[in-house]
Amino acid sequence: MLQHRHLLGIEGLSKAEITMILDLAELYAAQNRSSQKHSQALAGMTQVNMFFEASTRTQSSFEIAGKRLGADVMNMQMAASSITKGETLIDTAMTLNAMHPDLLVVRHPHSGAVALLAQKVNCAVLNAGDGRHEHPTQALLDALTIRRAKGRLHRLTIAICGDIAHSRVARSNLLLLGKMENRVRLVGPRTLMPSGIGELGVEVTDDMETGLAGADVVMMLRLQKERMDGGFIPSEREYYHRWGLDAAKLAHAKPDAIVMHPGPMNRGVEIDGVLADDINRSVIQEQVEMGVAVRMAAMDLLARGLKAQPEGTMV
Ligand code: NCD
Fold first, then answer.
1. Which of 135, 226, 228 to probe ligand 1 with, by most ligand atoms within 8 A of CB?
2. Smallest Cα–Cα separation from 136: which of 58, 225, 54?
3. Which DSSP helix (H) or strand (E) runs through 219?
4. Is the peptide bond before 310 cis (omega within 30 degrees of 0)?
5. Is residue 68 predicted with pLDDT exceeding 60?
6. Which of 102, 211, 252, 286 could form an SS bridge with 45, CB 3.0 to 4.6 Å?
7. How far away, in angstroms, is 263 Cα from ligand 1 center?
């Protein structure tokens, strides 16, 4: 069981808890490949998905995960909700709370919004991405994908490349991979590195050749244009030339290095489309597959906590 009522970030998780989630997800990954995909871990429970930002894979992945565990799953249509009429996030949450959901999955454009909401409701809250802050299930699914491909999740060299500054995926991965004792390098233009990066204890470079040298894992990030107000990169063509991953740049990594991307991809901007589809190097589809398994594991473990301590003394 997890020592938490919510899954708000990697920050609060111990190494043992991360391993526990991944080990259970491994079982669900096998179950998802069989024809009997259902179990009863969330039977009788209600899961509500509230996505205040666009999402394809994360939302559908949480929905499938909940259904496979036997929950009643509802997707709130946020564009059509009272938020557009001026209702605050907290009022919406309180209204929903009165309907007694057991699990609330939330994505929000503001860092910290999901944690704030978790203080106001009685159910378990899962952070599906808050601003530039955290995206814990993404880091967990990345970790499971790496562990399966490399046979371990420690003492690996992992290059996280591109738009680090705007990326909650980078932040959660940095925390998780650091906890598991890997060597993490951040690679990208200086304008896309967050301030205070020097304090994180990771290697930082703006040169792909240096950053990828000897890497076991090359994790590419989307250029998050919706979070930029211009001036961060010279042009997309120049960006691709210097920081876009293609076969020539990948040649600096280890010969068996894997290529990752959380999606959605800008083909021809941060990654070459042919490389992204190369099943000998790219594990992008496996990341999507592991996403369902990891979310099943996380919700199963939180539900066990709810059953054991319904009033909840856990944080
Ligand atoms: C990421 C996100 O939304 O943070 N996507 C995802 O969840 N698969 C990354 C991104 O939007 O680039």
1. 135
2. 58
3. strand 217-220
4. no
5. yes
6. 102
7. 6
Q: Which two tokens stand for residue 76?
A: 């709130």
Task: Report the alpha-carbon angle 43-18-16, nearest 5.
Answer: 110
129 — phi, psi (to 5°)?
120, 115
Ligand 1 mean position to 41 CA, how many Å? Answer: 27
How many other C-beta atoms are found inside a 10 Å radius of the C-beta of residue 126? Answer: 24
Distance 245 CA to ligand 1 centre (A): 18
Q: Which of 278, 284, 297 is nearest to 57 (CA)?
A: 284
* pTM (two decimals): 0.95
Q: How high is the pLDDT of residue 80?
A: 64
User: What pLDDT shows up at residue 86?
Assistant: 66
With 80 as the cut, is the pLDDT of residue 310 above it?
no
How far is the C-alpha of 303 from the C-alpha of 23, rounded, in Å? 17
Please check the confidence at residue 275 and state whether its pLDDT lies above 60: yes
- Please state the rounded mean pLDDT for residues 146-172: 97
Q: Residues enclosing ligand 1, CB less than 6 A?
A: 57-58, 129, 135, 138, 168-169, 222, 224, 262-263
Nearest atom, ligand 1, residue 107 CA: 3
